[in-house]
Structure formats: structure tokens, C-alpha cells
Amino acid sequence: MSILDVKIINDYIRTITDGWEQGWHERNGGNLTYRMTKDEVAACRPYFTEGGAWVEMGVSAAHLGGEYFLTTGSGKFFRNVCLDPVHNIGIVEINPEGNAWRIVWGLEGGARPTSEFPSHFMNHAVRVKATNGACRVIYHAHPANIIAMTYTTPLTAKAFTRALWQSATECPVVFPGGVGVVPWMVPGGADIALATSKEMETYEAAVWAHHGLFCSGPDLDITFGLMHTIEKAAEIYNLVLATGGGKILATISDENLRAIAKEFGVTLREEFLDN
Ligand code: 2HA
Ligand code: ZN
Fold this sequence. Notes:
It is a single chain. This protein folds into two domains: about 1-115, 3-Layer(aba) Sandwich (L-fuculose-1-phosphate Aldolase), CATH 3.40.225.10; about 140-275, Class II aldolase/adducin N-terminal domain (L-fuculose-1-phosphate Aldolase), CATH 3.40.225.10. The chain contains eleven helices and nine strands. It has helices spanning about 5-20, 40-45, 80, 85-90, 115-130, 145-150, 155-165, 170-175, 190-200, 220-245, 255-265; strands at about 30-35, 55, 70, 90-95, 100-105, 135-140, 180, 205-210, 210-215. It has a nine-stranded mixed beta sheet, sandwiched between helices. Helix 5 packs parallel to helix 9 (about 190-200). The radius of gyration is 19 Å and the shape is elongated. It binds Dihydroxyacetone and zinc ion. Dihydroxyacetone binds next to loops.
């Protein structure tokens, strides 16, 4: 037995490899964090090392004190994770105050949690509250089509949500609450972490202009599926604009969107519908 036989560790690594295979993680692009259940922590605890030094995050969330997160490593390549997990991913424990982490497994050889850990942590903090504790995953990727859209589409939640909803019939069912948009900001610090978590109070996904996408969800499959669905809709949107010379001749109307919502029993964000 090794920690790599524990189901959640396997599922986490598979999700990372799937993201790499989608082309969303050039070089060290993207990062994935997962808030472990008590049972998962218990299953992994035999493999924990003596906790390292506490490292302050620059952001804090008292209700996440004592939680354990799986995290990708700063500067590490998704492509390498499945070949060498202990150097590329790890588990961190959060201190009781909820403002510092320490490594309890993995990230060997001096590695650290993702440079976006403050953003992930703040997003976990707001999504845990917004979902009554259901949210466990924050996933950041660099899918080309959603990034391309941020050069052609007004950087508002309404414009992005409508364009994506209208690009594939399943979209309003998969993300009826829509997506938020964060304007271009310097990545990696507390400012972008706070701006993103503000969007995440309302939306389960947030676009980073000219950079990528953050998705949240209750498990790895649902969160990966959300990333995949949004990126595919963005691909269709870009194809439509490119092949149609910027003209859209037919689309899913607001009446159609309402009919989808009724049939599938979801509530669309009403302020994003026009008529
Ligand atoms: O981890 O994606 O936003 C590299 C990044 C930073
Ligand atoms: Zn990034």
C-alpha cells in the first residue's frame, strides 16, 4: 500500500492528467486544489510526514482552519504529475486560525503549494459558505477559447454568460447561475484573490481576462465537467464568429433559454435575460 493507492489521490492525479490532455496546462499553467473529507484525511494520515513550518498566506478564513487541501505545486508542470506525484503535488494542513499552511505530504525537494494558493483558498472560503459546505474543488486552467473570448466580448458577467448559454443548449442547464468576470490583474497575489472570491460569492466560475478560468464544485468530476463545458461553449462561440465573419444569424433566444430552464428544473439568473 502507498498513498497513491488511496482513491482520492488517484482521482486527483487523473483529473490533472485529463486537464493536461485537453491542452489547458502549457508549461506550469493552471492549478488544482481539493478540500479533503475527514475520511480521506484519515486514509492518507499514515503517510503524512512531520508537518513543516507554518507559512502565512496573506489572506485568511477562520472557518477553513484545520482543513486539509490537496494542491498542485508552484512552478510544477501538470504534464509531470502522474509520473512523479511526490515532487509535483502535496497535501497542506491549514492552521487553526485559517491564515497559514504547512506541508504534511508530498511537495518534496523544497516545492511549495501553487502560486495561486491565496486565490484558491479565498475561493474555497466563499464557495464553502455559498454551498453550505458542499464545495470541495477549485480548479484554475488556461483553456485557449475562453481566453480568446476575453479579447472580443465585453468583460461583464452578463455578456459572457449570455454568449456561453447561447453557444450550446446544455450550457444553461450546467451553469444556470452564469459566470463572473475578473478584469485583467497581476496573478498570484492577495488582490486578485480577493477580486476573484468576490465574483465567487455569486458565481461558481470566474473568467480571468486574458489569462484563464476558475471553476468550483463539489467534486472533481463536476468541476472538471464545468471547465470542459464552458471551454467547449467558448470554442463554439469563437468558431461561429470566425466562420460567420463576426455575424450571428441564428441563436438560442431568451424564450428558448426559459423553456430549457423549465424543462430541466433549473433557475436561470433572471437579470441576464433580456425579454
Ligand atoms: O500556476 O496558472 O496563474 C501558474 C498559473 C498562474
Ligand atoms: Zn494561470
